[in-house]
Write a structure and sequence with these properties.
Blueprint lengths: L6 E4 L6 H11 L3 E6 L10 E6 L5 H9 L5 E3 L3 H9 L3 E3 L5 E2 L4 H16 L12 H23 L1
Parallel strand pairs: 1-2, 1-4, 2-3, 4-5
Antiparallel strand pairs: 5-6
Protein name: UPF0178 protein GCM10010911_31550
Pfam family, one: DUF188
InterPro entries: UPF0178
Length: 155
């Protein structure tokens, strides 16, 4: 069987930390929460916390440098998702969308177009507020990804 994956969390603005911990404990999967010193996080059983400088890309750089093939990374950052996919990790959004080769180029291009619009004075909408359904969908997707990975490891 392959090494046990770690769930690596871009934890600065992650709204589903509690759901991640619940799934991880249920499936005995370690979690690594990475956040800047501006965020107070408590380690616990199976939950490690790494705190980094509050620099713009500090969390992303730490994750990119420490993620391993087969890890599951939870992030809202498409750029970080691109990097971890290239390293053989699985990338999920906090709403349960799995980033992969079929969608990441489109998402990166869309992010670029929206940034260009904002720089030229245009307005863009932010993300919708998280709902209970979003949290359930995320938890179900994370559970499915972990189950699928376990099945692949056993075959």
């Amino acid at each position: 069987m392959a090494n046990t994956p770690t769930i690596v969390v871009d934890a600065d603005a992650c709204p589903v930390k509690r759901e991640i911990v619940e799934v991880a404990r249920m499936m005995s999967i370690p979690v690594l929460m990475v956040a800047s010193y501006d965020h107070r996080l408590e380690p616990g059983a199976g939950i490690s916390v790494v705190q980094v400088d509050k620099g713009d890309q500090s969390v992303d750089l730490y994750i990119a440098n420490h993620v391993a093939r087969g890890d599951i990374v939870v992030t809202q950052d498409f750029g970080l998702a691109t990097i971890v996919l290239a390293k053989g990790a699985i990338a999920l959004s906090n709403r349960g969308q799995q980033y992969d080769e079929s969608n990441i180029d489109y998402l990166m291009e869309r992010r670029h177009e929206l940034a260009k619009r904002r720089r030229s004075g245009g307005k863009t909408k932010g993300p919708k507020a998280m709902t209970a359904e979003d949290r359930i969908r995320f938890q179900q997707k994370l559970t499915k990804v972990l189950h699928d990975r376990q099945e692949n490891d056993e075959s």
